[in-house]
Amino acid sequence: MNIRLYNAQILTMEKNRPVFRGEVWVKGGRIAGILDCGAECPNVDNITVETRWDLELDCEENLLMPGFKDAHTHSAMTFLRSYADDVPLQQWLNTKVFPLEARLSREDIYHLTKLAVLEYLTSGITSIFEMYLSPDAAAEACIDMGMRCVLTSGLNNFTSSIEQTETEYLKWNSESELIRYRLGFHSEYTCSRELLEGLAKLAGKYHEPVYTHLAETAEEVEGCKKRYGMTPAVFLDSLGMFAYGGGGYHCVHMSEQDMDIFDRRGMYVVTNPASNLKLASGIAPVAEYTERGIPVAVGTDGPASNNCLDMFREMFLVSGLSKVREKDAASLDAAEVLHMATVNGAGAMGLSQADVLAAGRQADLILIDLHQPNMQPVHNIPKNLVYSGSKANIRMTMINGRILYRDGNFDVGESREEIYERCNEIVKRIVYA
Amino acid sequence: MNIRLYNAQILTMEKNRPVFRGEVWVKGGRIAGILDCGAECPNVDNITVETRWDLELDCEENLLMPGFKDAHTHSAMTFLRSYADDVPLQQWLNTKVFPLEARLSREDIYHLTKLAVLEYLTSGITSIFEMYLSPDAAAEACIDMGMRCVLTSGLNNFTSSIEQTETEYLKWNSESELIRYRLGFHSEYTCSRELLEGLAKLAGKYHEPVYTHLAETAEEVEGCKKRYGMTPAVFLDSLGMFAYGGGGYHCVHMSEQDMDIFDRRGMYVVTNPASNLKLASGIAPVAEYTERGIPVAVGTDGPASNNCLDMFREMFLVSGLSKVREKDAASLDAAEVLHMATVNGAGAMGLSQADVLAAGRQADLILIDLHQPNMQPVHNIPKNLVYSGSKANIRMTMINGRILYRDGNFDVGESREEIYERCNEIVKRIVYA
């Protein structure tokens, strides 16, 4: 499809480039060109003379920008949303989550992932960094709907294996332009030393970064110290796990030494503020990370712990929690947080072609409604987005050049009601049987 | 207008009453009846035989519930949204807010309030507890749009007076069914002792509760201790200010003795979590208040400090921040927070007729879209609302029996674009001149 998005305000998220009026042209899955109109956009006829557009969309002076990157999630946990809340993390995992997850089939995960994808689209999320059981099922759901997904293995003592991880890694980095696969494991506390050593070796073989849940709770850190006499980051690094970089999900309880490792290895912190509040895990020292130059990306975590998949809420929290933690209302301003939720997310996930709006980049973009009252007046668009934005501002979500969501309607191959129905059947069987 | 809302799920917010299927009938500004259909709703013809409906609205199995009560706001501060962020409270007030506010005319406040009202409607807020300059202008804007508003005086050394407060009190408690007026003042630190004594006397004359900003920052509390040797709550109570109860906005830094006063006087805490994060004021000990039986209501604070007027974000924060503050993931569950945002809000504002859905109560209600992906599956509706809900779930907002907002469209006497235009003219003149 050749799509012309005209009469727009444009925030490319390129460094130091302010919002301007213009057009974005999409051909196939890529951005073919970006037109900066200055004060007045040129006549339509002069532009369209060379190209046959399949669709010309009047953006009505709304904002085009790169889609949000949800840099940590477990999509299929939709089946537990609002089922198991208000309990601490370890109890939540051991008594609520793990026993029910054990009953999920591969097909269940396929359908439950689809429910999450619908919600990502309503929140302007154009790619997800997905860790869950059955990566194959998640990948297939994303392909079938048109969602961009970077898988990472949730390898642990009970599910998957080094061999399976390698097979998935090889398959999903060449199967579909929508899917990539990065090496990962669930966490230090769910993996034996042997398993971790095996993964570190695999990372060495392919020169790949590795991602994992890290320092999410104080208990996790204490447990690792007891087992190995080191914090999780130090222990894992001592195995050579991060020889080619990688990242940690959560990173709420990090020591100076842990941060030094992240700094030295060029690793990403993926912060998940809503989940950390809801499970009472703590408030991550995000300002410290950024002061050290450690890149921070933002994730929702899964819908069982958050419980929504809403990057607007996460962005407000990254800034607001940092301000209250540092006792400094100037901490982590809106522009910095918006960068985390877009450019840094792409960096963490290895999506170098989906970071900003520019000619040649992947056409993963969103249209933000500036005509809603929460976006008025327009003193400062990044501040409006981070401090005041909501899902209700998402007019359109485009991934890989396809409009998957527009004005409340989905174009994902089947109706939302069909997806709900299938998920509710699963819930009935798994949770209430 | 006689309006029949049928094919709904209904959450009345009456104590211990679960969600049921049914209908809500509205006549004039009141709820005329609520029908619990049990498993199957009766035939339409049998119901409508006695009444001529002006409108019959199919709720499509979505949720009817009481509207949210925004129990603390400064509506007209819309003009500063995203203008003066990322600075601490006192600096923010003194260098950014006060100098620009001094330039606002009564008419400016009228128009700027209207912008806020549009946003309240998109967030399912059906009444506001409003403190700002020119209460008359705010009241008129609300009347003209159909919004329910409880005014409280922002009395301080620089604006308003005891006499003006008394005049407003008498006028606005008898002028319009949409408006009520409670006694109040800006804060201890902006009022002389004489002024405060005068207001306490006025409260005694009319047996009225009194509302104020209280213990918002640690500096405020320290300042009062220096001036009077007491915390603000203790000092104000010593003047007889709370002889007939009242409430405190924010209440982030409260002593045991302060809480004892609230307890003894039957006073309300109105918590404003997003504003307290954004201005780095702190995290209020809300769980302590509820354990002591002090009723807590929820407010957004004004759009210059928050910056959005979104009760969904506030509700998540009340619960999430309490969990992380108390290091207890079970702290303040969703049902309790939903009660705060509806029933307790009505209590704090003195709106005894707008608390729950019941025959005879004011028809202030909202329709929540349960067919959005963030509301699926439906394990638990209150948890879905508090942990996962967003503005995007508001299908309809009705105040005093009038539908003011439905499916993204406003019915408030003029178009949203006209309101934006007038506000942008004011911004241009006040902020950028």
From TrEMBL, chains A, B:
InterPro entries referenced in this protein's UniProt entry, alphabetically? Amidohydro-rel, Metal-dep_hydrolase_composite, Metal_Hydrolase, MTA/SAH_deaminase
EC no. given is: 3.5.4.28
Q: Which UniProt keywords apply?
A: Hydrolase
> Where does the Amidohydrolase-related domain lie?
64-403
Q: Does the keyword Hydrolase apply?
A: yes
Its domain of life?
Bacteria
Instruction: List, alphabetically, the SUPFAM superfamilies matched.
Output: Composite domain of metallo-dependent hydrolases, Metallo-dependent hydrolases
Named from the GO MF annotations, one term is: S-adenosylhomocysteine deaminase activity
Q: What class of enzyme is it?
A: hydrolase
Q: State what protein this is by name.
A: 5-methylthioadenosine/S-adenosylhomocysteine deaminase
This chain is encoded by the gene named mtaD
